[in-house]
């Protein structure tokens, strides 16, 4: 009965992970609560259920987030990225080799998410400069970061979690370099694939050197309108128009005129017009006057006859807007990214992706009010191969959505720092504003690097447990001024911490109730006459597929007890099966939703969902063979 209850909880958790009705971390906590409530069946008491928050894996993950942030804040990764740009000279093959090689090695010691975060704008910038499609580089970038995570214990959070489970189930935790012999082989084979077969399979979804307006197909959604002397806009600022406060009866009256397609009387104010014309889905972006340009949401200059307004909206809405406000439609003037980029005002065009932990995820643009709060205007949303131009206020944002923004330089940092979105492409001054200037490396960078290396050395030499060494590194990071205490706490992805800690009791329940042994027996029965090595490969494939659909953390918690039980059923060593699950989870390439870095490059690369299967499928099968054989050689069955 207990195993059935646990299986029901597993099924419910998998459903929630796939549908994302609840955030994954909240699903994990819900599972933890359910296990305790159903203790007579699950065998998980209250005190045991929360032990995950103090597990060595979770504590080490928290510390490594902070240590990685210290290295990143010192500009080490930025400097390295800049050096690569200078050394490759625009040759696509050399650039690809430099990106995957550097990312793969770096991700073995620094959390791969910030590494990819730094490289995405570098790659898109170099792509534009040298006429290379960013699609050719971004997917290999993500895959290389995943491959590098298999090099060491701290390469990815699932390695640490697997080590914790190995200690519980087999009394054999990982050391710092336990996975390295196989990890080196996996990285080498993966990089070779990405530079040869993978390069040929990666689709060119974004045209080389395409500007933002071309990339987001904005040619029919950006227009210019000239203010006539008789326009009711004359003498008013755009800011006044956006402040609101229009009586409902006035708005309704003006809306009736707009709907009828008639011109407004001259005494009508721009505030009334814009309030009434919201249904037209129009945004004013820029004002041009006598060779000068002004950012529409920030300027306090009253509009004058002859001013040219750059607006976002479809042709029908723009025509109606122009007729209503007595504006001249400059239909022959095309609006390009260069026209907006070379404006001289603080507004710039940029791309940003909605990441899995974004505060905007699941919310409508109308509810977020980016324009009124941050002076940020969303011009379009790319979702896979679909581009949304109209009725943007009603769009509910999802993880992986790519947004085309017009944003001021002095505000954009708030959006990224406060977890709204992640900027992927824009002018160099945009990232200089975020990073505090162009990347450079000085003597101060030696402190976080030395701290990280000391932590790795202490753990590798077994002088201290990894979690104690890492916590000591956190103290050193704050004590030396590399990070303030508040920034250290901010560097931790607490949702990942709650996800891991919440799921650990589920693995314990699977083991305690016999559920893992039952599934292991079914796996053995299904395998039939397969030899142990073939069964090991089957476990790898099942794990990789599952990790590509739900979170890697959930997969490792579910599959490791099953893998160990399967090994016990056929009378072979459990450690090779546990290690194979660890590698399969860390290298789940089949979808953009299984791994965070895949989701980060999904929008900027313009990829389709199936592109990950197209490129990642052959690599997954190749690594199934390579990993299975390598594991069986290093740890014989």
TrEMBL record:
Gene Ontology BP, a term: potassium ion transport
GO cellular component, one term: plasma membrane
Primary location: membrane
Keyword Cell inner membrane: no
Keyword entries, A-Z: Membrane, Repeat, Transmembrane, Transmembrane helix, Transport
Membrane topology per record: Multi-pass membrane protein
Pfam families: CitMHS, TrkA_C
InterPro entries recorded: Cit_transptr-like_dom, DASS-Related_Transporters, RCK_C, RCK_C_sf
Alphabetized GO MF terms: monoatomic cation transmembrane transporter activity
RCK C-terminal domain sequence ranges: 239-327, 337-421
Stretches that traverse the bilayer: 29-46, 53-75, 95-123, 135-154, 174-195, 497-523, 535-560, 572-595, 615-635
Subcellular compartments: Membrane
PANTHER family, sorted: BASIC AMINO ACID ANTIPORTER YFCC-RELATED
Annotated protein name in UniProt: Arsenite transport protein
High-level lineage: Archaea, Methanobacteriati, Methanobacteriota, Stenosarchaea group, Halobacteria
